[in-house]
Structure formats: structure tokens, C-alpha cells
């Protein structure tokens, strides 16, 4: 029986992960969970899966949950609680389903213990890819992608040699504003930006999908996961989200991974790899997939995608700066403080205002993230 710790169990990836575990309950058991503040759902998960160790990041919510659970359930709190859970709990696999930079430190704790990490928290690799990869090697840990695009590439690479890869092609749905003009983008509302055409996800990643920053973060994530340079990574808009990504080889052959979109597939593959298990999450009806289309992304209009390629070329802590600035810009957009087109401007201002450090250690990365957030909050 493999034991699993899920960080971010009440978000969309966390909920899908528990669906996968329900389907494979003879093989996997959950020993720990964490949530930001949705203690109603967390409590139901604790009861259903008989969980004894949890962490709630919000201190007040943690105290409220302690009142509601039996004394046998240990409720930790805050970022320290997350670190304690990752560093001390008995588990084999960490599912990193948290949102944003806050996933980095607990993921590093799991890496130091040589665990398998099923990684959905792309910001961990974006902000600290070089450092994380070094630690994975040193401690014999393993990072398997949960992001659907990277799971697709990972599956396409099975049995292939690195030297024979010509390029990786990440597919993007294009988000709700594909084909919009600059004038239309300037006045989009929060509700319009939150209405994603194909995937139902949390608000941060949904806004990132609308700006194409999500695809930009995925380009950087692909670089660190598969050791490919920026000029071998392409992005193609594919609004149907049936092809989850592709790899083209030096002889011109292209492998693609397809399915009706459902995050349970990549989650399950990251848990059972190198094997597969039967599941009936999706039914693939090709008669309903008869119109697969591909388009060029507009990197001048959707500037966040261009910024991601630029910071990948630049190296050092520039991706960490872009990530932190984006997290604050998205928060400000969701609070109605800035417009949709101000998001890339805040990222660019932070990139010119915060110094870039090459070969940064963890302390420098954490400090860069902190300083960037302060600057991004001050910017209009
Ligand atoms: Mg994705």
C-alpha cells in the first residue's frame, strides 16, 4: 500500500486526486491533507478517508477545525505546519497541488526525504527549477508531472532518446479571449476572465490561462522537467484541448497524447508510473473530436507568454521575479484594483526593478520572491 500526502486537497487537483485514490483504494491510501481555508470540505475528506494529520494554512480556520474534529486528528497550521507535515509525516508520494510560490518549501522537504513528487504546483519549478533539480538528484527524489501538457510530453518521451528530440509543442486552449482585439482585452471584466472555455480550475490558474501566463509558466516548467532549451519549445493554440501536447523528433515524426480533457488521467499516471491502471474517467468518442484545430499564439497581444520565453533566456532569478509579480498582479486584478492588460505591465516593471541573481541559493530565491511582492503591491 502506497501512502500519499496531498497538499492543496480542497482545490480542483486535490479533489480529482482523491477521486483517483477512491478508484485505486487497494493500492493507495492517504495519510495527510492540507488546505488553505476550506475547512468544510477538508472535514468531509478527513472523515471519508480516516485522516489523522492535516494542516490548514489560515490560523483561524485551523482553530475552528480543531473544535470540530476528534482529538485523534492532529491539525497543524500556517506555513510552518505545512513544512512539518512534509518533513515528518509517513508517506511515499507527495501530491503538490497548492497554488503559487507557497508550494516550494514543502516540496523541498519532500525532495530531501527522497520521495516521489506528483507535481501540479508549476510555480515550484518556475521559481526555483535549477535548485530543485539539483536537490532531486542529490537526494534521489523523483518529480513526475501532473500538469496535463507535461504529462503528455512525458508519455510521448517514453522509449525515446533525448538526442532525437527536435522540439516540444505545448498545446494551449487559448483561454476565453482567443481572437479578441487589444481594445476588447482592455475592458474585459473579472467574470469574463474567470469563464474558461474547457477547464474548470481555481481562480489564479484561470486568470493565468486567460493572459497565457499559464502557458508561459508551463514553457519554463517544461524546460526544467525535460532539460530542453527555450528554442526547442513551441506553443500552439488548440482550442479543443484534446491533444494535451506533442513531441516532434529529428526524423519529422510527431507523437501526441490525446484524450477527452480530465485531470484525473495525468494524476493517476503520476501515481502509478511506470504502469497504467484501468479507469473509466473518460470516454473517448472520436466522432465528437472531428474538428481539431491549431493556431499561432499572438505573443504581442498576450505579452505574458513572450515574457516567459524572455525570462527563460535570461536565467537566474528572473523567472522567480516574473512569477511573484504575476501572483500579485492576478490578485490585484481579481480585487478590481487593476485592468486585465495591466498584468504584463506589472511583471515587466518588477523585472526591471528587482535585481537578477545568477545561480541563486534558496535564501536568495525566497528573498527575491518577497521583495518582488512588495514592489508589485506598490505598482499601479
Ligand atoms: Mg496545464
Explained architecture:
Among the domains are: 2-145, 3-Layer(aba) Sandwich (Rossmann fold), CATH 3.40.50; 167-260 and 297-314, no CATH class. The chain is 47% helix and 16% strand. It has helices at 12-23, 39-49, 59-68, 78-88, 104-112, 122-139, 148-157, 182-186, 190-193, 203-211, 213-226, 264-272, 303-314, 318-334, 342-353, 362-378; strands at residues 2-7, 28-35, 53-56, 74-77, 93-96, 116-119, 142-145, 165-172, 233-237, 243-249, 254-258. The strands form two sheets. Strands 4-3-2-1-5-6-7 form a seven-stranded parallel sheet, sandwiched between helices. Strands 9-8-10-11 form a four-stranded mixed sheet, covered by helices on one side. Helix 3 (59-68) links the parallel strand 3 (53-56) and strand 4. The radius of gyration is 20 Å and the shape is globular. The chain starts with a strand and ends with a helix. The chain binds magnesium ion (MG). Residues 147-149, 218 line the site of magnesium ion.
